[in-house]
TrEMBL record, chain A:
PROSITE patterns: ABC_TM1. It is a multi-pass membrane protein. One of its GO terms (cellular component) is ATP-binding cassette (ABC) transporter complex. Its main location: membrane. It holds the Pfam family BPD_transp_1. SUPFAM superfamilies: MetI-like. PANTHER family: L-CYSTINE TRANSPORT SYSTEM PERMEASE PROTEIN TCYL (PTHR30614:SF0), MEMBRANE COMPONENT OF AMINO ACID ABC TRANSPORTER (PTHR30614). The keyword Transmembrane applies. The chain crosses the membrane at residues 20-45, 57-79, 85-102, 186-206. InterPro entries: AA_ABC_transptr_permease_3TM, ArtM/GltK/GlnP/TcyL/YhdX-like, MetI-like, MetI-like_sf. This is Polar amino acid transport system permease protein. The lineage of its organism: Bacteria, Pseudomonadati, Pseudomonadota, Alphaproteobacteria, Rhodobacterales.
UniProtKB/TrEMBL annotation, chain B:
PROSITE patterns: ABC_TRANSPORTER_1, ABC_TRANSPORTER_2. It is a peripheral membrane protein. Residues 12-252 form the ABC transporter domain. GO terms for molecular function: ABC-type amino acid transporter activity; ATP binding; ATP hydrolysis activity. The lineage of its organism: Bacteria, Pseudomonadati, Pseudomonadota, Alphaproteobacteria, Rhodobacterales. This is Polar amino acid transport system ATP-binding protein. It is found in: Cell membrane. It comes from Jannaschia seohaensis. Coiled coil: none annotated.
Amino acid sequence: MGLDFTIIPGYLDIILLGCLWTIAITAAAALLSFFGGILFAVMALYAPAVIRWPFKVIEFVFMGTPLLLQLFLIYFGLVQIGIDLPAFVAGVIGLGLHFAVYNSELIQTAILSVDKGQMEAARTLGLSRGQALRKVVVPQAVRAVIPPIGNNMIALLKDSALVSVIGVSELTLSAQRAIGATYRPFEFYLLAAAFYYVINLGMEWVQRRIERRISLSR
Amino acid sequence: MSTDQTHLTDFVQIRHAQKAFGQLEVLKDISLNVARGQIVAIIGPSGSGKSTLLRAINDLDPLTGGEIWLDGTQVNKSLPHRQYEKHINQMRQEIGMVFQHFNLFPHMTARENVTMAPKMLKGLSNEAADALAEEQLQKVGMLERIDYYPSQLSGGQKQRVAIARALAMKPKLMLFDEATSALDPELVDEVNQVMKKLAEEQMTMIIVTHEMDFAAAVCDRVLFMDQGVVVEEGPPEVIFKRPEKERTRAFLRKHLENAP
Ligand SMILES: Nc1ncnc2c1ncn2[C@@H]1O[C@H](COP(=O)(O)OP(=O)(O)O)[C@@H](O)[C@H]1O
Ligand SMILES: [Mg+2]
């Protein structure tokens, strides 16, 4: 049985729909991982111990265990304690928190390496420590780690394929469904790979635009 | 009349300031009064405690003993932690500080550097903040660069924006810690000109400097510090032309062209 790409058009609609879901879940999880990463970083560095410890536990769980297991826990596990999340939401939370922890590591290091004259200048003007962190230190730290955060977001896109196991009809699952109907794994997996690559290019383009926009302000 | 006089000389008071970093005594019982509108220069060798003294005035380096007063209010008064934070943030709004390395916020334009604190702390509207930025940047000759980022400015321009940023809080007192030491020689004058202008406007200033000529030209009084004490103080004519202490003379021999 040779390759036959002519069967693709008949399934293009479900593959494209899968692309949209992949983009949606990646975008939502990326946003969560970005702002969650900032929050985790600030908590890890400055929160009182009572607040810091629960965050440490989350960090430990999300760094030290497989993402797949985390998705199972959030989607299937939480039901048992009465939290029944839609698959998409569970996927966003799992992916988002997982990568928030990685972003948080980057941001913590960056916060600590912001020149201490910045905090001093802000305090000298009368800002409280919290205000100075929010307006002066954290924005600089985040700018400094936009490139590695971008790398994390590309990894997030690839790992978004994992949410297929909890039934989100994203690109990988859509390809699998097309394969189930046609028994043509090679064609549809290649097609899915091509679409991942295109989305990846799109993300790199966005990242370059962001980097160019902040290049003066660093 | 006499009460007026007291009030004037009381404007800034440093009373028996002491500061130790662990075992290291950096300020040993320093007292200093500055009248409203007066300009005091602090000179002295590196490591003598000049920066620490300035940084104690706005509590960046809290004193281990002694008191700082500004315009009738004690800056470093003892209060419970939360109240103290509120108090000190309020006091710092009234004390502008200019650093050797500018410490401009690199992610903000000149305008944003100037308006950030007034907007945040005084609730200025966008319009009022823009007017303030234009006014202050005009004063330091940086209006044309109002929407430039620090990375697009020279050292002298950065320092002028940093001065505008401090002035935008309408401080009662300005502290300068070697504001021109990090600048290329040809950029020093533009910053000195701005400081002279402030002097003409009767801004009360305490200026740590290595530039004896500038101190002589602008300041009402000069303090010579060494090893955490004020060795000698007086009007610039006296300190620079006929200092009494040998330590002062030795220092000036190194830093003046035609030293006494
Ligand atoms: N944060 C600090 N911790 C420990 N020692 C310090 C600190 N800041 C300053 N010192 C010490 O205090 C002394 C005075 O420093 P400084 O006030 O910076 O002097 P100056 O500004 O006159 O050069 C120096 O010996 C310096 O090493
Ligand atoms: Mg110094």
